[in-house]
Structures
1.
Amino acid sequence: MKTDKKSILTRGIIKENPVLVLVLGLCPALAVSTQAENAIGMGLATTFVLLGSNVVISLLRNIIPGRTRIPCYIVLIASFTVLAKMAIEAYAYPLYQALGIFLPLIAVNCIIFARAEMFANRNNVLDSVLDALGSGAGFTLALLAIASIREIFGSGTWFGLELPWLADNNIMIFSLAPGGFIVFACLLAIVNKISKDRKVRTEHDCTSCPAAVACGKRNER
Amino acid sequence: MTNDIKRTYVMPLVVLTAICLVVSGALAFMDSITGPVILAAAEERAQMTMADMIPNATSFERVELDDVGGLPTTIREIYKTSNGVGFIFIAAVNGFSGDITVICAVAMDGSIIETLTLSHTETKGIGTILEQESFLYPFTGLDSRLEGIDTVAGATISTRAFIRAIEDIMEAFYLVEKG
């Protein structure tokens, strides 16, 4: 169970990337990833909520009773989401408009809930902070990758900068929902191809589960 | 036994209530800081848009919606210029996906000065026609009959919703102008 600090941090970025390996949080990942700028904003907002909820849940892990832990987590996560929403609306209005409905929906983002349930409620604060930063960075980077491809081909721009030739020959489907699924599937395939050498995921047991290290149920089987 | 009751029923309630209370306090505190900033920014944005639409207006006064009877339910805000140049209407209608907020300046004679889409969440590349000059410009100068205005093929639902907003605004104009 003892894992060193560096691996807790990097795990969320590569080995347990929330979007591309754990396949969580797809709703915001696909919806907001039409522009690289929005992807960064969404990633940072989610990271903030993740960090806040992980810290508080880790601090309260011995106080929150097991039976009511889920409502407690929901209240805490939703509150951090509202805090983030208020701050963004007040001080970064264009981002607030771009994220739209997906900003309040961070409250039901399963990545945050997964980190609370799988990690923060059984690890100390420092480790939970590292875990949140790692997963947040992984989410942001995955979103940025999807959004960059979609923005470059769909709108012919990147971070709002017009790209020569592509701007006049944009492929609209990349900006629309189907394009999101196509790009996501291609990235998922690439990640699976790369990680295939490391792990063969054919059996449905804990050894093939990327979350096994963090999951306490590992030894129960 | 009493220990059991305490653990199963009392503790979860106490902890959850305590968390809710603390969290409500934190949210109220945050709201007291950001609330005024958000309101002021929204007001400033509205004033700037309105000043752009009717440049020769001295200032804008808000018309209370409750004071005008029988307004279409889509009308959100009404402003009138203090020097009697015209009115500004903000209406929100249901589009293809979510609300389309439309702002429209109407001169005292009932002709449209300018109309803009304030916000919308229509399909990118299709419903975004609502932001384009080619769609918005023809409204300028028209009266409530909206002659020559039609939906745009390919974006029928979005453009029909927009036109409905303008129709509601014209209806509202005659109501406030009379009253």
2.
Amino acid sequence: MALLVVENLSVGYQTQKGYLHAVEGVSFSLGAGKSLGFVGESGCGKTTLGMALMRLLPSNGLIREGRILFDGEDLLQKTDEEMRQVRWQGIAMIFQAAMNALNPVHRVIDQIAEAILTHNPSRDKQEAYEQTRGLFQLVGLSEDRIRDYPHQYSGGMKQRAIIAMALACKPKLIIADEPTTALDVLVQDQILEETKSLQREFGISIIYISHDISIVADLCHDIAVMYAGQLVEYGATEEVFDSPMHPYTKALLSSYPTLIGEKSRLVPIPGETPNLIHLPPGCLFCDRCTEARVSCRSNPPVWLEITPTHKVLCHQCGKHCGE
Amino acid sequence: MDHGKETILELEHIVKRYINKGSFFSTHGKDVIALNQVSIRVMRGEIFGLVGESGSGKTTAGRLIARLEEPEEGEIYLDGNEITALKGKALREFRRKVQMIFQDPYQSLNPQLSVFDAVSEPLIIHKIGNAEARKDSVWQAMRSVGLSPPDDFAHRYPHQLSGGQRQRVAIARAMILKPEFVVADEPTSMLDASISAQIFNILLEMREKFNVSFLFITHSLAAARYLCDRIAVIYRGNLVEMGPGDEVIENPKHPYTQALIDALPKFGYSGEVKRYQTLLRAEREASEYVGCPFFGRCKVARRPKCGSEKPPLKRLGGSHSVTCFYAEPGDKTGSGGKK
């Protein structure tokens, strides 16, 4: 059975101008030990989705409908106190710019030990510190930096400390929201390598949220492409990248400069994302889509199964397949 | 491409040091050498990429060229004229010829100026044209960066624009003075991929139309490969490798460049990928200013030479040069000395 099943999740924000549809009707599932990457551009709802899974939305955020089944239990039915138990022990999150998440006035080791003790009040202090030392080793932080304060760490080291903290309570699922965006490539590569090996070693499931397709392609088993709050394409990473179906996925792929292989002219996506307060009736991408027909404008698209492990939300793709 | 007959910009042995006065309690802190003996030459009509990680000194180089700062040592020539001593009228003329596009369009535009005011401001400062002529040039500049029809955008303020539109305003503002040289400092790092592609293509178009030369500063080798004719890789203030873009990326010679390429996910390519594996996982003790700057992290370094002697920039053939004692010309594809 899948570790996490999300069904028809819709999340929005109450703003001065009206209700903003940040995430609309998103469904996916994630097996134990698997990794799923969410890619999309800024404002597509990927961070909101991560926050909603943890039920950490800001006060004007609202989960309008849907179900989040984690380990068979619906997280949306839980009380705040029950949810607190799930966070960190069931699901841990690595936030964007996580290096700023460390408290500057406490030693790093104390902060991690505190996380362990808070969630396992029965553990004694000695044990918690011992475990923290083990975690440091695990994420590749050197033993002699263990008593340092956060400001003595480099960006990459802080990020490692945050990963250590996320692992502290042995969660089943980690949600990583742009964990390496602020880091240099050499450091990013090391962190990603370590994340991969930790995942293999402990069988943790990972949801990886990023704007950088190349990282997600490198790291994740499955991939979900988001546009304007909706999933538009979802499937096994190789299938989605080798034969992208949705016009948005195709456009996104051809707007990325590559490092090797054929060098072709980048094709930007014309136009802008739709207004998320007044959603148009049809396909949300149709104004920028090169393949759109008149019917795309009025009818909302439906999911189409290309293969059992590859789905796309588009009117036109179905026609091509049928022909 | 037939750019590159005539030198437009030349940096010679540039050293830039930031003096660290230390805190209230200690008398003297450690100075930071942002650029150490850097020499580059950019041809007219060329897009020259300066690639490095954060703190490598790439932004400092851009600021020196735009004369927002001055070097400690070395000379900078634009069109054959030394620029570090320019004053008065000559400096004003220089400021017209060299423009800068900054990284963050959310901060580089004055929130109180409308798009029209922002784009026309340089003309007013340099007293070019009358109101009528200025309007024409503003309209033209806005069209050329894709802000059209200009009427729709001219009276908007920065907060009413998206990130990509703001960066276009910044480009229009830089291009309106018909500069000869533009320093573009990470112009797309704050933007989404689809928007970045628009900006890249605008820069390429500007080069085609006006034969402007660019220094494109970036942390992304992929972006540099797409946009640049030649690339220089810079590491902790030292130039480590320089050459034609494709050559440097497909056939890197410096262990640092090789490590960078190893570290990047090879997206969109299913073939066999060569791994160089030149990065030392555990950094070794090394003095920062003696020996090769990459010695501390280089797996292929040899003692004692690499740790005690600074490698000179050596030419491998064509215009590909590298600062490594042990780099050899030639390669698997055989294109090493071809260009």
3.
Amino acid sequence: MLKLLKYLKYTWWQVLIAIAFVATQAYFQLELPRKMGEMTNLVLQGAETIEILKIGAYMGGVSIIVIVCAVSGALLNSFIATTFGKNIRADIFKSVSTYSLTEFEKIGTASLMTRTTNDVAQLQMAVFMGIRIMIMAPIIFTIAVSNTLRSNAILTLVFAAAIPLVIIVLAIPFIIAYPLFDKIQKKIDRATLVLRENLTGVRVIRAFNQQRAEAKRYDEANRDMTGTMMKVNRTMSFINPGINIIFNLTYLGIYFLGFASLDGKPFDDPSNFVNFGTIMTTAQYSINVMNSIVMFAFIFIMLPRARASANRIREVLEMKPSINDPTEPKHAGKTEGKIEFRNVTFQFKDADRATLKNINFVSKPGQVTAIIGSTGSGKSSIINLIPRFYDVSDGAVLIDDVDVRDYTQAELRSKIGFVPQQALLFSGSIADNLRYGNSNAQEQDMWEALDVAQAMKFVQRNEQQLSFDVSQGGKNFSGGQKQRLSIARALVKKPEIYIFDDAFSALDFKTDIKLRRALKDYVKKATVIIVAQRVSTIIDADNILVLHEGSVAAQGKHKDLLRNCKIYREIVYSQLDPEEIDKTMELSQQVLSNEGVD
Amino acid sequence: MAAPRGRMMGTIEKPRDFKKTMRRLLADFRPMMFKLAIVALIAIISVLFSILSPLYIRDILNSVARTPENFFTLTLEGLIVVDWIALIQRFAIVLAFYASAAFLNWLAEWLVIPIAAGYSYNMRKKFQAKIDTLPLNYFDSQTYGEILSKGTNDIDTIARSMQQIITQVIHSIFLFIGAIIAMFASSWQLALVAMASLPLTIGFTVLIAKRSRKHFKVYHKKLGVLNSHIEENYGGFKIVKLFNKEPEAIEKFNKINADMAKDDRYAQFFSGVIYPTIHFVNNLTFVGICVVGGLINDIGNMVAFFVLISLFQMPFQQIGQIANIIQSSAAAAERVFSVFDEKEVTPNPTDALVDISRMTGEVRFEDVWFSYKEDAPLIEAMNLDIRPGESVAIVGPTGAGKTTIVNLILRFYEVNKGKITIDGVDIRNYSYEALRNAIGMVLQDTWLFSGSIKDNIRYGRVGASDEEIIEAAKAAHAHFFITTLPGGYDFVLNEEGTNISQGQRQLLTIARAILSQPKILILDEATSSVDTRTETVIQEAMNKLMQNRTSFVIAHRLSTIKNAKTILVMRHGKIIETGNHEQLLALNGFYADLYNAQFSGSNPLAPLDIEA
């Protein structure tokens, strides 16, 4: 956690001045009880009005100094803390931008978000309060105690007795309650879970008449949670009264000891009467001292939570991306988009088995390469290797005869137009989203891409057309529409390589065919890779890779595979009746040879 | 995502009808009035002790100052001798006051703890029970998250504040009043000085609170913008990388971040400046008491007043906090009460039929009209006549009304006009339990709960024996994979249901439905992202389930449709064509179109995306 404090260096002189303000404030705050003691002695010895008023004026001035220091301190503290937070957030975001898929999956998107916002906010709050308390409490303590030592040394005994008592009263309940805090969270989560299940499963519960059972299930969780909560509250109930009584006893003790210490002292020593005032000052000090101890203890309570946040943030900042640019990047001789997988093996770090084994194939420009296989066969992994979302464990992936690891990531990705399985659109206009592919795209280019992606009709339907706003998460479009927009975005980029990761799954067969037909003309000599579940999508590809448990079971054209590859046959027949297959082939041929099917 | 804790002037939401809500909340406490009265009594006595203590110390100090001979004597050498007994006696009384006050305070809180806990326990119980009686269209009007938040976060807010409010409010009010009385009874001059601090404190607090709230609002808005940007970039990082948009994303982030930090600074400052300001007023009051105490030559009361003022200011400063807590509790309570006040489903008629053992499963729809929303008519004048054991396939594009038929048969929604009968009896004449016992359901959404596989399957029929459960699992072709799991039937499903695959979940729901031995079956065939082998198994299980049962199938598989006795083709909530497969093809209408587009490419998974 201390490592993160280095972010304070950006505001180091503000920190110094803030500390100065705090110290000044502490000093002057303690002047008030001291002057009160002085005044008491004066009054007891019969003082003049003017002297009382003089002391009063001084104390008034002191009060003003205190608040000036406090407000200035608050100004500085807020600046320091928010700047601290701002800088950490910026660094976190930058750090995350360099991550590859592995790092993202290690921490998880939701956790990353929490760390960027909530955890930073926790730390920021800790810094804001910490500066004040960590400086002020010790200073107040030191000044008060040293003043007391000078004036009435014996009274410091009271402080010495009180401090360990406070620590005990605070520590014991917290130590007992600490493990319960964790438990409570779990029990709250459990009760919430059951309630949530009752909501999401309301149809099933009623359909199976399980209301009574569910009520019992919830009651168990409810009872459990309430019981633990009561335990925690009961344990903590001792703290406030405990601290209160120690405060009061300290106050009382100072008076008592102050008078008791007169025992055996010579009567005519004038300093005895001076003591009355200082006893009162010390009694008043005791309040400040006790407060500062409690404040300090409070920090220790906040510390674990702040430290937890700090650790989470550090993990993000210190995580080194596993995919980096080469020190001496190469460029391709030609820019055709030929993809070659040379003996590629890929295995996840903690996995027992390799996801991909000895993958060999070549995708030539102008060709469509299809990859098909059951769930978990490794299809997505293959195409994730091309833009270097992961790196191969053995073998190589080459684009235009250059290993993908020898390109800079920026250049590599500029060659690829990737349409992922789940269409992700950003908030902004349709045009903004399309321009994501190419920031210089003109309206004409965008309409062309939309037309090919079979998206022109529904975009034109809205009045704002290209300026129509996409809401966050693309909620104002259907799944199929989102997918087509996502495809259009890749098309606008006009890259040498197109990769479609099951990108046609939300389209019905007719649209699928029309799209691929328009695509053929649009991409011309580019390399196209399609991953699909649906046989009808890939049935007419130039080369089909049949993936099975991480290896290429066979590759070739549809007719040959149907004859020679058992796995391919299984997949095909599970989707189409035999008579349907021929029909599908016919249909595709018709469409692709422009005889039309509308 | 909330603003960090410790900021007092955060987003305090205002309840819509504060008085009404507060009255209702308080009414809930009426049964506990007696206990609360005792707590109040305890609080009053503790306040008494708290106030007497400084007054007594004042008396001791005055004694020492004016009549020191009560405590000290002189030796012959002129040394002071302390009269220990007298001293200790006096101080011991104050000690006793302190101890009593502390004990009573603790006791009051101790007594309130079970009261508050019981209150929140009951509220939660009531909430969950209410959910069981709400008509299904209530769940359409809000997201699950919103409803869940009311049942958890909102009730939590109320529970936590209950504890605090009860103990603090009673104590603070009495302390405040008691301190004022004590002050005026001791020295009216000093009391006036103390009173002067009130308007100052109020004035400053209100002033600062206003500015603070303003800045907080702006800060929150900008925080929202930042969060959206982060969410999009983290959630869509693949896209960001693929299009090389990292530098732009960082630039945009830094801009939003810097912008937000500015308002964050103001908001933080204003929330942090409240305490010093109040402290300033306290200091001024201190100075005032000092000076006036000195001028009227009353050191004893001066000392007493230092304590009395802190006793008197404490509740006053807490009022701000408590006001906020009360406000947010009231707002939360409003939301919870709104759920309690919702209309419930029609209860079972008193003469409801409960015996379904002789049900044959003949289902009729007679002139049924239904719509979810008034202005969006869905089912109009539907008539259906299904004989026992027949299977009916329902086909049509998304939104055509297919699941609606299911909702009506199970009486999740009531028909607007007309009636649905089973074996000639209107389903409204059956009890809900009987009706739903008779109908088995396998939905697309595979809902299972976090419990063991055995318990999940047993959900189909309460009291089913282990053997029957295994039989059902075997019939559903689930037995095999269950036995490969650690613990077998005792294997516990986790929250998100991710420790078994989607296909396996589907098989379990089928087993559950088989166990329920329904007379009528409702089946939604959509299976999502399942591999070929599992899909075949699921199909076999579904076929077995449909044998000899009246089945309503929302069909996605060619074989189901071809084998159905009747196919209902739905579009825009209406049945536009009926017949079996061959008859419909011959019609060469919508069904034929659909078939050619959809099934000659045979993707069972894709929802139809026709620009219909």
4.
Amino acid sequence: MQKQEQIDQLKSLVKDLLDEAQKQGATAAEAGLSQESGLSVSVRLGDVETIEHHCDQGLGITVYFGQRKGSANTTDLSAESIKETVSAACSIARYTSEDAYAGLPDKEMLATYFPNLDLYHPWKLEIDQAIALATECESAARSYHPEISNSEGATVNTHEGIRVMGNSLGFLQGYCSSRHSLSCSVLAQRGDSMQRDYWYTVARNALNLESASTVGTKAAERTLRRLEGRSLSTRQCPVLYSAEIASSLLGSFIGAISGGNLYRKSSFLLDKIDTQIFPDFIRIHEQPYLTGALGSAAYDGDGVATQTRDIVNQGILRGYVLGTYSARKLGLKSTGNAGGVHNLSVDTSDLSFNDMLKKLHTGLLVTELMGQGVNMVTGDYSRGAAGFWVENGEIQYPVEEITIAGNLKDMFKQIIAIGNDVDMRGNVRTGSILVEQMSIAGQ
Amino acid sequence: MEPLSLARQAILVPAGILDSDIEKIMGRLLGASVDAADIYFQSSHSESWVLESGIIKEGTHNIEQGAGVRAISGEKTGFAYSDRIELSELLLAADNVRAITKHGQEAQVKLSQNSGWTHYYPVANPLKSLADQEKIDLLRKVDVATRQLDKRIEEVIVSLVGVHENILVANQDGSLAGDVRPLVRMNVTVIVEENGRREQGSMGGGGRSDYRYFIEQDRALEFGKEAVRQALVNLEAGEAPAGNMTVVLGSGWPGILLHEAIGHGLEGDFNRKGTSAFSGLVGQRVASDLCTVVDDGTLAGRRGSLSIDDEGTPTENTVLIEKGILKGYMQDKLNARLMGVKPTGNGRRESYAHLPLPRMTNTYMQPGQHDPEEIIKSVKKGLYAKNFGGGQVDITSGKFVFSTSEAYLIEDGKITRPVKGATLIGNGPDVLTKVSMVGSDLALDSGVGTCGKDGQSVPVGVGQPTLKIDGLTVGGTSL
């Protein structure tokens, strides 16, 4: 109940902001406000390293004077500062140009359905409890094996916040959410080889976190298996992206079909709607209304209703990822994606990770990617990588100091299979992805 | 006026915070077992303007202000912050923070003004160095001039960013230091098209200066020319080679090599904890004797420069590697104390809401003897990498990457044809041992670098002369 009062209070602040904007001459306005608080405790080598108390707030306003736009943000929510922020936005709108595509969403696009998405599960975590949890996690990692030689520590995070947004078309909504995580990073040493790796768990509800000992154990296992990695000779071979990094391939795909890159014609997937991008067994869809999920939302950054929809079906591109502005630039309708996608999910096969290794047969399993190395305009792809060499479906030895390269247009078409080992920790949910062939550069 | 007085006026006066209030907060922070404590105040105003498709599409104004309170006991750090600069909020933050230590008595602290260091940039507010209309006119001028350069230009995007930041930092000994930090940056991105092929080129620059910097020497127009040149080169680019080969790195921004390959690995925190591939290597050879590398926060007006760091320590020109031998690390106060060395003025934080960490400022290699052309001529077959995008490093394994945005094949001592962007990967502790020639053409980058560590972004600079490396893995597709 107390939370509802806080939401109502912030709603009235947003309403005041919008009124102030109109008072200062804006023909339309939208505003967002957030308040977050949290605790972050880290333990290293069995001792407390940091205790951080977080407390953030901020507001942003965008005003329109006809087709001209201005924006301003502040972390200071005093009445005086709010007024100044509104005038700063209005002042900017005097200098920006008429832009035929600028403006609030069409009213009928605004969200009207606001189900409880179950995003708010505060965690009454005392500092001593947090220390105990982080200590348990780190000690599980450190005691796992004698070659675990050092630690970057274990960290417990808990955050909760309120977000409210509104616009001068009468849209005014707010919700609470929470996010908790536990992470651990340790080092291992054997001879001259020193390696580091980590593991983490994250959830809206602390009850859904992996246990401290599981996180610590996984961090230790992942670190140990990297010891004595070697480079490969330069070659071409199939590449299996492990689930936790496969989401980056989907990220590049979403970037290429995002409105901003499309209207700037800086995408390698221009004008590809209704054409085959992936093999026909691939389905990629958005699930914004999943309860308790990390990427759930009933409306996007413009207040437009989000959609449960297929983006790729039978390998064919069925829709773009658009906000209000980019949709207008392209002569299309917003897809409710101002600010990004919501729980992007890839349909999986019944193949486990071990089945995927067998399917790879002989090739490279990639478990880490380094650097940016993706050209959105051309699709050219070249990134640093580390992982394992696999023969006859069995992991042979760790591999490092290599690059993997190709072109995303080809790589998407050459996906052979998607595993059922889905990583649920992010906004993009996919299993491991097997690509038929890529160029490996090494020694 | 002195930066300290200006920062006091910008932050404390409007908030109604008196020196006695700071003494009170500090007194609350300090207890029997507190080794160090600080209060960091920040007030930052920034703006950005974007021109796209020939129109001024966006303008944004940002205010970020608040204070962070920290206490350290041994290796333990307690930290809290507030975006309200109010005595009651800061006392509450101090109470939260001192929970890190066993409760001690409140201490008495007497504030004293700290000054007497050199200032490496002007104090004037860059946001006011041009009228808003003049900023718009500048963006339009760059757009028009750039579009006239070539018929193949499809799109030009020009952005202008300015920051005016005031900071104050009070330490446990009562010393109060302050700084006023201007920062400006302009970027031009062009997209070109020919026969259905599209490519992009990008160039920008700036520093701790004001907007007139872009008008002087026609710098803004030069950014446009350079962006177009790069985009047109990329229209001709073929497959990049794959494999281990000799790589010649151009001068200036390719110094990102130093930042990724050795810079991060020489930050004090990783070495104190023994997690860096460079841990324990002081006094040992980590580069060929042609290599001398420094981190220098004292360069006038540079993007990575600071008069004092975010803990109030004056910055230095710190020698990291001298003639191939590792000399020392970059330190903040915490890690310097725990390692028994002096802080080097590298304690930096993104904002009041973040903890200080040892970070780089401007990292570069001193020039050598060779004429750059002579270096190219010495290569039978290899890659000449003239420009780069970003990079990344794993400080424990030492593996680092950086990605070319403009590169050419070298065949029989001649630059022959451009190749597409590719990622280069190497091992930090041994890459510089393979430096066999160092050019006489030291150049610093144009002022575009932003470095990320532990989720915190800070502006940095890099630089180097032309370098020849006998063997680096190039991640192209042409086997």
